[in-house]
Design goal:
The chain is an alpha+beta fold.
């Protein structure tokens, strides 16, 4: 073992560090771990327009203590005051989206947690809230929480699982140094988030102006022609899902499903399932560069995803077929990129709810969808508009890649700093 380190229940840590149970970190006045009140103690009919705030998963998931507008009276607050929220507390989500955290800042509104949260209140002479938050956000702890969650498809944590949980805990000066280093990276991430949000707003504004002809690029004149979607594409109404197992006469192919297209009309990196098809089916349902894959049926009546789409560029062409909940639009009388951007635009997105049949699997009404009217300029102007919007997309992708690299850097730093492998404070300085 490396000199200056020791073996503990949480692994090898510096000799100056401790590995306490969470339930031993209280201040002697307030329980260190407190679950929200039982459901029967707090029901929606007790909510009032203003008063003492109810903190729930919506605040934690949003990362914003100001979010939400549920309140209770002073009388109810006093009944449930053991579940009160105070600055310096750390809140943890228990149900569904398990393991999300929110540090309650100074100035936060007084209130209580609801039954979907656990509140951590530690001795501030031993535990820095920001440091503890980073410990619980680390990959190792998040994986453990996910394994501990109970309840089938909707994971549920409870206070009993967390009380004996141990963490590696350096002295306060080192906790502070680690928290400050990781906060600096969070600052970088926050700045990138703001840049990405601004760039997305710019893209939406540009789409609204350029795709409708309200703003014309330099050098272009003349009237646009309004065409129906069905008149400018060849449609394949639905894909196939093939056979699960190989057999003679079948070949393997990846299959795109509704899960592989994001709500922002981009492809994600989820692994595609592999199925087996005849050569004829692979030929009939192969994708070509310039094709658009549209979700025609998906989600639920409460979460309609029909209409989201992905563009097939040269990197994706002929790499997969598409499942029966998707359809293919092959542009024949319009520039593919121009059509893609128009179908992603606010003009079309606001129409989609009126074009979808509400059912167990909401389906696009194809006749209405193909009747969407598109203002179409001459090919040269289509190309110029698509190039402007593609350039914005390229910049967005670059910023998002920087954000992912920064997130990976943060996770690497957490792995090093929160285990003591890399020290920011020398052993002598810790006790100075």
């Amino acid at each position: 073992m490396k000199p200056g380190y020791k073996q503990t229940e949480v692994g090898v840590i510096p000799e100056e560090w401790d590995d306490p149970r969470l339930d031993s970190l209280g201040d002697g006045k307030t329980p260190p771990i407190k679950a929200g009140p039982f459901g029967s103690s707090l029901t929606k009919d007790q909510y009032v327009p203003e008063g003492y705030k109810i903190y729930g998963q919506e605040q934690v998931i949003a990362g914003d203590h100001l979010f939400g507008d549920y309140f209770i009276t002073l009388k109810k607050y006093r009944e449930l005051e053991t579940c009160a929220v105070r600055p310096g507390d750390v809140l943890l989500s228990l149900v569904g989206t398990v393991g999300r955290l929110l540090e309650v800042p100074e100035g936060a509104a007084p209130g209580i947690i609801n039954p979907r949260l656990i509140r951590f209140t530690f001795d501030r002479e031993r535990v820095l809230p920001r440091f503890f938050t980073y410990v619980f956000e680390s990959g190792s702890v998040q994986s453990l929480l996910a394994r501990q969650a109970q309840g089938g498809t909707m994971g549920v944590l409870n206070a009993g699982v967390l009380r004996p949980f141990r963490i590696s805990l350096p002295p306060l000066p080192e906790q502070r140094a680690i928290a400050e280093a990781l906060s600096d990276v969070d600052g970088l991430l926050g700045g990138l988030d703001q840049l990405i949000a601004k760039k997305r707003d710019l893209k939406q504004a540009a789409m609204q102006q350029l795709l409708t002809g309200k703003t014309r690029l330099s050098g272009f004149h003349g009237n646009w022609e309004v065409k129906r979607l069905g008149d400018v594409i060849h449609l394949i109404r639905g894909g196939i899902y093939g056979e699960e197992k190989p057999r003679a006469g079948l070949s393997a192919s990846s299959v795109a499903t509704t899960a592989h297209i994001e709500m922002d009309d981009t492809w994600n990196n989820k692994e595609m399932p592999v199925r087996y098809f005849t050569a004829e089916k692979l030929r009939d349902y192969a994708t070509m560069e310039g094709d658009l894959i549209v979700v025609k049926s998906s989600g639920s009546a409460a979460s309609i995803q029909s209409g989201k789409l992905g563009f097939i560029d040269s990197e994706r062409a002929e790499k997969f077929v598409f499942s029966n909940f998707l359809m293919l639009l092959r542009p024949t009388a319009i520039l593919p990129r121009f059509l893609y951007f128009y179908l992603c635009s606010h003009n079309v997105k606001k129409l989609l709810p009126t074009l979808v049949e509400a059912s167990t699997y909401p389906n696009i009404r194809l006749g209405d969808y193909l009747a969407i009217e598109i203002p179409v300029p001459l090919p040269d102007e289509q190309t110029a508009i698509a190039e402007v919007l593609t350039e914005i997309d390229t910049e967005l992708a670059r910023l998002e890649q920087r954000r992912e690299k920064t997130r990976a850097l943060k996770q690497g730093m957490m792995q090093e700093l929160l285990t003591g492998r890399t020290r920011l404070v020398s052993a002598g300085a810790v006790h100075a």
